[in-house]
Specification:
Mean pLDDT: 91
Radius of gyration: 21 Å
CATH architecture of the largest domain: 3-Layer(aba) Sandwich
Shape: globular
Number of domains: 2
Number of strands: 10
Largest sheet: 10 strands, mixed
CATH class of the largest domain: Alpha Beta
Number of helices: 12
Distance between the termini: 47 Å
CATH superfamily of the largest domain: Bordetella uptake gene, domain 1
Helix content: 40-55%
Order of helices and strands: HEHEHEHEHEHEHEHEHEHHEH
Strand content: 15-25%
CATH topology of the largest domain: D-Maltodextrin-Binding Protein, domain 2
């Protein structure tokens, strides 16, 4: 018994000493998306800012595949020492969508949100509606006749569409594409009529008047996507759908290390130039006040996301 207590005490002292000298080597920031998208952009941006604050390189590591599952599993199994960090969305999404995944939310400690965004509701120019209110009226009069171009099960646009259907009392016929790009091409061609999309995917087409933007999936709209009404102004009260990116470390990571990573990330996100770069991606910098505050947000949002996926009938075996 005494020996066991001595070992435990020694282990605790080692962790404490390691936390005090953290970081002593480069940190790996893993993201489950390929280069080029918003997830990759934010990963590289926050990695650079954290590296400046921590005095050690923070290296972006793209591990795309299985909608982020490969990256999450890799980090869940990593040593809980703060040197492997994950940038991801809510784990409840894949936990509900996939029949089996090799990790759970208990495998992680949340650090902070990085940024939050909303989807843009756009329609093909040939449609007879010019507002979200008119779209809802048309969809109710023609159930199932509007085809929605979706970026794939579990994506932010997929969840935005499902939550819109529930809030507005309508039903689309959704077509799943392998990403926002192919979905947008379908909308442009007129094969589909409606699309919920991340801002970078469609705002170029909106500005070129190739599609019409009716609404942002936020109640009050977004400063990062000016000129497009939020759901309250657009006449769909009670509707909101956001997506975000946030940092996690493996469960068991010492609290002083978690605090240091939080400090480095939030200091970077407070900079005006960093906020401006995130706004260009159609998102707003939304650092969490504390890791505990981030964890509380995650827990509160989980039932909403789980219900949206279950109600949509989406399931990946």
């Amino acid at each position: 018994m005494i020996r066991a207590l001595a070992v435990a005490a020694g282990f605790a002292l080692c962790l404490c000493a390691e936390a005090q000298t953290f970081p002593a080597k480069p940190i790996r920031l893993v993201v489950g998306y390929p280069p080029g998208g918003s997830g990759d952009f934010l990963t590289r941006l926050i990695a650079d800012e954290m590296g400046k604050d921590l005095g050690q390189p923070v290296i972006a590591d793209n591990r795309p595949g299985a909608a982020g599952n490969l990256a999450a599993e890799l980090v869940a199994r990593a040593a809980p020492d703060g040197y492997t960090v994950l940038n991801a969305w809510h784990h409840a999404i894949n936990a509900t969508l996939y029949a089996r995944i090799n990790y759970s939310d208990k495998d992680f400690i949340p650090i902070t949100k990085i940024a939050t965004g909303g989807c843009v509701l756009v329609v093909n120019n040939g449609q007879p509606f010019n507002s979200a209110k008119e779209l809802v009226a048309f969809a109710k009069a023609n159930p199932g006749k509007l085809f929605n171009a979706s970026a794939g099960f579990g994506s932010a646009p997929h969840l935005a569409a499902v939550l819109f259907e529930a809030a507005a009392g309508v039903k689309f016929t959704s077509v799943q594409f392998k990403g926002g790009g192919p979905a947008a091409q379908s909308l442009l061609a007129g094969d589909t009529q409606v699309m919920f999309a991340t801002s970078p995917t469609v705002m170029g087409f909106v500005r070129a008047n190739r599609v019409r933007a009716l609404m942002v999936s936020l109640q009050k709209g977004s400063p990062a996507i000016p000129g497009i009404p939020g759901s309250e102004e657009a006449g769909v009260p009670g509707y909101q759908s956001t997506f975000w990116f946030g940092l996690y470390v493996p469960a068991g990571t010492p609290q002083p290390v978690v605090r240091r990573l939080h400090e480095a990330a939030t200091r970077g996100l407070a900079k005006a130039e960093v906020k401006e770069k995130i706004a260009l991606q159609g998102m707003d910098a939304t650092p969490s006040a504390t890791p505990e505050a981030f964890e509380a947000e995650i827990r509160a949002e989980a039932p909403i996301l789980e219900k949206a996926i279950r109600d949509s009938g989406a399931r990946i075996e």
